[in-house]
Each structure stands twice: as structure tokens, then as C-alpha cells.
Amino acid sequence: MSEKILVVDDDPDIVRLLSKILEISGYGAITAFGGQEALAKVREHSPQLVLLDYMMPDMNGLDVLKDIKAFSEDIYVVMVTGRGSEEVAANVMKSGASDYVIKPFVKDQILTVVKDTLRIRQAEIRARKLQEELAELNRQLEQKVVERTRDLVETQERLILQHNLASLGEMSGGMAHEIRNPLNSIALYSQIMMDELEGGDNKLDYLNRIMSDVDRINAIVTNLNRFSRRIKREKKPIHLQGPLELTLRTLSAKLAVQGINVHVDIEPDLPEVLASSEEMEEVFSHLIINSMSAMPGGGYIKIGMHPIKAHSKADMLLGGKDRQSRDYIEVSFSDTGTGIAKEALNKIFIPFYTTKTDWEGTGLGLSVVDRVINDHEGVIDVESEVGRGTTFRLRLPVLESGVSFSSEKKVAFG
């Protein structure tokens, strides 16, 4: 037996006798002759059991018992007392003792109490650990239920959005035709009235405002028509570096004029993806222009392209963290712009939703990005904080494996 037992009594003969009995029975005996010394030995050795005298000159046995239990609940105490009254027994047990022995005692009696107390201690400690493990499992289960519920809600919202987009596509063509007819009449009548008015007439200013709004409505209708009738181009095995380089070349002049620096970090020897190069250019262009709009006074864009191990689109939407992962290329766009408010993050992919106030944006760019990525069986997510920039991450499944993949790699400013 390896259990350490502390024997505490102010009578040296009792300490010596108890220690010998315990050592003969295979226990490790530690001794103390007073309350303060007992507490010091408890802190030093952390015994499994303490045989504690009820009456000591320097410190009351009940006070020592309370201090021991405050130090560790796993140290069990058997009180040894010469006062065999029910009141003493009640106080001892109420204060946290596991048992008590009345003097005088015999060898078999003390060994039986020690053995039973240690067996009970072991069982109770095991039970407490099992309860703690059960509580932790319950906590993890509750957390998983919360996560899965949130993921299912997000999936349902995404499916509803896709259904709404399909419905929007079906009716937008007819809407564009019906809106353009009266819009054309408004423009023609306004031009006729403008020709009939002389210069300086303040009605010309009103008509100019009407024509400006006609142009803006026409632009919205044009974008709606383009969005709903977007042609799905043929997908081929491509390296994503190609469309990214073309996009950056096209936008390089605007980026320079606006004072925006771009840093590109592309891992070499990336595998191909099955995608439309033209649509990938469109996606990259929308995301870079989105970052430019968030940095009117200049800033910094970091573009990363890396292979990762992730889960399939369905698994990611359903929170399938324990399922088989797939190989993806992750393309990230991080900027130092104004950021997006938390309440707006779940709306930015909705058609015509925009945070811009200057009428320059139609709110269709990110909807197009989301639609293209979905068509390519990929996933897009966004992280943003007001005043600290935004990061978009695209994940597209690779055509074939053959490279070393990182695990959920994230791109950040270095």
C-alpha cells in the first residue's frame, strides 16, 4: 500500500503506537504532535488520510479539521477522541470528518476504520471525477447542439436566399421591360420640355434632376437585368493565379491613383481548380473594388492564395467538423478599410444591399461573388471589424491533390 497517513496527537506514546500499527500494515506514516505542525505536514505531504486528536493544547481538533478540508477535499480525516458523547460525534461529522474513533481503541478497530475510510475515499474521488467528466461531456454536447443549430439556421437562410435569387431572376426580365417603357417616355418628354425652355429658366434645373434620376434608375435596371441573366461560362481546369494576375493588371492604374498598395502571397505549385477564368476574374474584381471603396484615402490590400484541408461545402454549412475533409484552394482578400458593422455582415450578399451612401454602388457586386462561388461548389465567408478592415475568404475545391495542405490556414497582416 502506498497511502500516506498523518498521525496527529499530543501524546508521543499514542503517536508512536499508531505509526507502528500503520507501518506494519503497509501504510506510510507521518507524525505531528500539535495542530500547527499537523497543518504544516498536510501542506508538505498531502496525505490521503489524517488520524487527528480531538483535544490538543495548541489548537482545537475541529479547527484543524476545517483548515485541512479547506486545503483539500481529497484529504479525509478520522477524529480520535477520548470524549465519546453524541454531541462530540455530531460536531465532528458536521465539520467534515469521515469517521471518528473513541479512545481507548484496539489495533483491529483502528485498521478497520482506516481501511474503510480509504476505500470510501477512493470511491468518492472516482465518483467526483466521473461527475466532472459527465458535466464536461454535457457542456460539449450543449455547445455542439448550439453550433449545429446555428449552422442549420444559416443553411436555411442561405437556401431561402438562393430561392429568392431564383425567383428574382425569373421576374427581373419582365420588370426591366415594364420599367424601361415608362422610363423612356419620362426621358423623352423631359428632353422635349428642356428644348422648349429658354436658358436661365429654373425649370431647367428641375428637368436636369429628373434626367439624372432617370439615368440612375436605368443603371439599376441594367444591372438587375445583367445579374438575373448572367451567362454561366464553361468551366475548365485552371490555375487561379491567372485570373488574379489579369484582374490586378486591369485595376493597377486605379489602385495606384487611389494610393492603395497590394501585396500578393501565393504558395507555389498550387493544383488546378475546375472553374471559369472569366467568372473568377469577375469575382476577384468585385472583391478588390469593394476594398477600394472602403479605402477612399488609400490603404493596403493583402491577397493570399494557399492550399488547405477543409470540409465539403455541405459539411461546412452543416458544421461537419468530424467528417472527411477535402482539398481546397483558399483565396483571401484583406484590407485596412473602414470595415463592416456586425449587424450588416449577414446582409452583404443580399442583392441591392449596400452600405454606400454616394449612389455609386448598386449592391450587386457581392451577390454576384456569392452566386459564382456557389456555382463552383465553393464557400465564401467574411470577417470584419469597424475601423480595422475586412477579410473575405474564398474556398474552391481542387481538381486533384498532390500538394502538402495546411489545416484551416488563415491569412493575416505580417
What does this 3D model show about the protein?
The structure is a single chain. Strands 7, 9, 10, 11, 12 and 13 form a six-stranded mixed sheet that branches. A five-stranded parallel sheet has the order 2-1-3-4-5, sandwiched between helices. The chain is built from ten helices and 13 strands. Mean pLDDT is 82; it is low at 317-323 and 407-414. The chain is elongated, with a radius of gyration of 39 Å. It has three domains: 4-105, 3-Layer(aba) Sandwich (Rossmann fold), CATH 3.40.50.2300; 152-228; 236-407, Heat Shock Protein 90 (2-Layer Sandwich), CATH 3.30.565.10. The chain has helices at residues 12-24, 35-45, 61-71, 86-94, 107-196, 203-228, 241-257, 277-293, 313-317, 365-375; strands at 4-8, 28-32, 49-53, 76-81, 99-102, 236-238, 260-266, 273-275, 299-311, 325-335, 379-385, 389-397, 406-407. It is an alpha/beta fold and 414 residues long.
List keywords for this structure.
single chain, 414 residues, Rossmann fold, Heat Shock Protein 90, 3 domains, 13 strands, 19% strand, elongated, disordered C terminus
